[in-house]
Write a structure and sequence with these properties.
globular; five-stranded antiparallel β-sheet; 5 strands
């Protein structure tokens, strides 16, 4: 029983490392890092629109040319995605490498 748990832990650690390495490589070609409560994204264009509704304010975030930091996704690169969030949305402009 212990061997299968160790193997599963090792498999998960290898996947996390592979995802981090992919993120590190991908970050070089994107302009923005965006973080929500659920996940992180890299994108070349970001539009954050606060929307007032009867229940309060939420954010509509439109990302273009996107890489999604999520291990379970088969395709992390998408041309556009729209996120709706009632929580904070953090947008950071990445430093351009010379």
């Amino acid at each position: 029983m212990m061997d299968s748990i160790d193997e599963l832990d090792m498999f998960e650690a290898e996947r996390r490392l592979a995802l981090y390495n992919e993120y590190r490589d991908a970050a070089r070609v994107f302009t923005y890092y965006i973080e929500t409560e659920l996940r992180a994204y890299l994108a070349n264009e970001v539009d954050v629109e606060p929307v007032q509704s009867a229940g309060g304010v939420y954010f509509k975030v439109t990302l273009t040319d996107v890489w999604i930091y999520e291990a379970e996704r088969l395709n992390r690169f998408v041309p556009e995605t729209v996120i709706y969030s009632i929580n904070d949305v953090h947008v950071q402009k990445l430093k351009v490498e010379e």
